Amino acid sequence: MKLTEQLIDEIRKEASITEVIGKYLPLTKKGKGYTALCPFHDDHDPSLSISEDKQIYKCFVCGNGGNVFTFVMNYKHLSFPEAVAEVANIIGRPIELDEKPKHVSPYQRFYDVMNEASEVTHYFLQAKGSAEAREYLEKRGISEEISSRFQIGYNPGGNTLCKYLSSKGYTDEAIIKTNLGRLAGSELHDVFANRILFPICDKNGNTVAFTARDFKGLSDSKYINSSETVIYTKGDILYNYHRAANYVKDANRVILCEGVMDVIAFERAGISFAVATLGTACSKNQLQLLKELSNNLVLAYDGDRAGQNAIYKTGLQAMENGMNVTVVDNQTGLDPDEIVNKYKEKGLRDLAGKAIPFMDFIFNYYKKNLNLENYSDRKEMTIRVGAIIDKLKDEYDRANYTEELYRLTNIRKIDSVPSKSEYNNKIVSKPVFSLDGLTKAEYTILQLTSKSKRGMEIYKQELGSLLNPVNQKLEILISEDMRRHDVVSFSRIYNATDDPQIQNLIGDLSLMENLPEEYDEELLRGAIGKVKEEMNRRRMEQLKQKIAAVMDLDEAETKRLMREYEEIIKDLAKR
Questions:
Q1: Measured CA distances, 422 to 37, 391, 415 (Å)
Q2: Within 10 Å of residue 120's Cβ, how many Cβ atoms?
Q3: Closest among 343, 286, 344, 288 to 310, alpha carbons compared
Q4: Residue 275 forms beta bridges with which residues?
Q5: Is the domain 241-364 a CATH 3.40.1360.10 member?
Q6: Per CATH, is 433-575 categorized as 3.30.1360?
Q7: Gap between the Cα atoms of 575 and 563, Å rounded
């Protein structure tokens, strides 16, 4: 059966999010919604909130959220079509998917061309003329089995890839917008010519980018990477996520390293639960993806200075997000790929098996970077490490590491160590949405315009836009959903967008308890007035700057700007 937008919407409407999530988790009624222990991180205090009214769930600790399909996708590691079929089966409306179900996405043509490129370049690697590329991989310790598992490919010269994709009916626009080709004159040229290609996939296994290795010495850049496209944002992707997800649960941990070859090195060593940030920086979105995999994070960045600094920064981020962090104690100065090549697979396995607590790494890090013979450095270590110790969950760990810090520096911490209960309240308590006036006004507008066509008409006539760009994007989606379906569904809008900021906003709006539940025109007009007032204030500031800039140069323009400024003052005085 083909998945159409209409069929997906029918299944979503018939499915109760509490019924579906309740198939997998025990739920507790709380107020107007439900709570549960979040399965996407190590949760001991129920932090997963579910809105039956909005058909949205969200965990306010790890950030995982979405609608009924999103939950099944994340919980069972399914593709979108498979999740739709799973939900359909739960509600007693079983469907049989086509052999190759298509993800209903406005960017499907870009996913298609990238998946095609991944498949054909892997085929090119097996061809007779690609012996040199295969020999290079063999020298790097990459077997045919590993090459097949990671869909490693080869893009020969002569614009072979662009010509092939064009012959398969893909448009120049699709090839250019996915950074596979670029126009030179009137001809398409391969971006990754004469390079070995490593496909980068999203969490559903779709190829969205490539990192490409020059193995012939034809370029000054050993590696070049896909630029960001409509389907690829570097900070939203973890390399090998979709494969590692199958192994993380049994391992009860996920290993984070820096690059493609590091992940492959762990795979060669028999460790299949490693992912990579494709660089030393770890973004908030990547951290959230890690939490969805496991709450136990093992950092295995390179042994050089940049790698050690990355462990420090990423480890702090992860710890502050409630994750249990350990570190592969890599004193070799080598990256995982170099380790497995020099010390064989056992060498990397042994190293990975001796991960140390993150706090032990912190002590070693500061001992290397500070001179503890110097009072100022000892004081700096006491202040900085002491602040990190205060964030530890376990009171015994806090006490022991405080003692260790004093032993090293001979300086006692001045500030008090928070109790375990104080720390836990900061980490796992449900968020209280304390909104500033402008944010609450815009959230009220989003809520009320989603409930009433008249409210939407009043908003368009009297305001027409919101100040926060994410709020404005969601308002546009609400308007479009109302135009197409009469009754607005946040759950349906969640499905229709790939923007994580909008999805996160939908989760927040769905679970806030201090927003109006019924349409209230007086409240809507008050919120519109609040936003309009702020718009006027910001416009006044802009006018002041423009008037100052043209006052001595253009008398007519100065008068025009002054008239507009006075009109705004009059409008503000009426409110």
A1: 20, 10, 15
A2: 17
A3: 286
A4: 256
A5: yes
A6: no
A7: 19
CATH class of the domain at 108-232? alpha beta
Residue-by-residue pLDDT tens, the chain, 575 positions: 678 888 998 999 999 999 999 888 888 888 888 998 888 887 777 889 999 889 999 998 888 899 999 999 888 888 888 899 999 988 888 888 765 544 456 788 999 999 999 999 999 999 988 999 999 999 999 999 999 999 999 999 889 999 999 999 999 999 999 999 998 888 899 999 999 999 999 988 999 999 999 998 888 889 999 999 999 999 999 999 999 988 988 898 999 999 999 999 999 999 999 999 998 789 888 988 898 788 899 999 987 888 889 999 999 999 887 789 999 988 888 888 889 988 889 999 999 988 999 999 999 999 989 998 888 899 999 999 999 998 887 888 989 999 999 999 998 876 544 444 443 443 333 444 445 688 888 999 999 999 999 999 999 998 888 988 899 999 999 999 999 888 899 988 998 888 888 988 898 888 887 788 889 999 999 999 888 888 888 877 777 776 776 666 667 777 777 777 677 676 666 65
Q: Which residues pair with 199 in a beta bridge?
A: 210
CATH 1.10.860 intervals, the chain = 433-575
Considering only CA atoms, which of 62, 61, 74 is closest in space to residue 25?
Answer: 74
**CATH topology for the 5-90 domain:** DNA Primase; Chain A (3.90.580)
From residue 214, alpha-carbon distances to 77, 157, 313 in Å are 34, 12, 31
Q: 58's torsion region: left (phi>0), alpha (psi -120 to 50) or beta?
A: beta
Residues of the chain with CATH 3.90.580.10: 5-90
Which residues make up the CATH 3.40.1360.10 domain(s) of the chain?
Answer: 241-364
Residue for token pair 């409240």? 523
- Judge whether 256 and 290 are in contact, CB under 8 Å: yes
Buried b / exposed e over 543-575, threshold 16 CB at 10 Å, is: beebbeeeeeeeeeebeebeeebeebeeeeeee
Q: Where do the CATH 3.90.980.10 domains begin and end in the chain?
A: 108-232
Q: Which residues neighbour 292 within 8 Å (Cβ) at sequence distance 6 or greater?
A: 40, 41, 62, 64, 74
Cα distance between residue 208 and residue 200, in whole Å: 6
Count of beta carbons in the 10 Å neighbourhood of residue 49? 23
